[in-house]
Amino acid sequence: MEIKFIEAKIDEVIKELEKEVMQVLMDESLDKRDTNLRMKPLTSTKKILTNALDSIKMVDELSKKDIKDIGI
Fold this sequence. Notes:
The protein is mainly alpha-helical. The chain has two helices and no strands.
């Protein structure tokens, strides 16, 4: 599995999310409640992507360890 490729793609998505966050924060027409409502999905998405990447890395690491232990 090409972890670097996956990591790069997830980083691209996170950068786009951060741009959206900045747009929401800079929108002066939104009150605090609306800002928070728009931020929650963006924050949750970033957390999900970060956790997914951590899980992928962990699975890859365990897979490599298993292969090494088996001697393939």
